[in-house]
Amino acid sequence: MLTNQKKEEKLKFLIFSMGSLNLAMGIDSVIRIIPLPTIHRSGDKLLGITVYEDQEVLVIDLYKRIYGKETKITNGFLVIFAGQHSLYGITIASLPNIQDVPVQSLQPVPKEYRDRDTLGISSHMMQVSIKKSDPQTVFLLDAELLLKMAT
Q: Domain map of the chain by residue range?
């Protein structure tokens, strides 16, 4: 018996926790997730640098950007993603989940909220069950805003 149900369109996201927030990136922008390498940074900056496969990776301290203080991750991971001209990375404390999320569950973060909140680097939000939990709010990071922060 044939049904007229359309297949629900889904997108793949890398979902991870940072402090009390759940964040996500589109999986298609992620190059690699590696064990945390040595990151060189001078002083109290949001940016650092490391090397991955003979390429420089500009590392953004996203935790510091959001919470205003550094986190001491020792056994975490570096999520490497591609910008137009170079590689960028953000540090995370534990391995992320990869999850399919229905497109219609993505809701834009209101501009008024983005402009006034420290999480102004988020473009959309969604409700996702993480590790079979009740649905939780996940903020989708806006790669363009992350890259602006890095320059």
A: 12-150
> Percent of the chain at pLDDT above 70?
89
Tokens representing 50 are 């490391």
Per residue in 35-55, pLDDT tens?
999 999 877 778 899 999 999
pTM: 0.85
Q: Rounded CA gap, 37 and 123, in Å? A: 29
The CATH fold assigned to 12-150 is OB fold (Dihydrolipoamide Acetyltransferase, E2P) (2.40.50)
Q: Report phi then psi at 114, rounded to 5.
A: -60, -40
Provide the token pair at 104: 């219609």
Alpha helices in the chain (DSSP H): 62-67, 111-116, 143-150
Cα atoms in the 13 Å half-sphere on the side-chain side of 40: 6
User: Coil, helix or strand for 84?
Assistant: coil
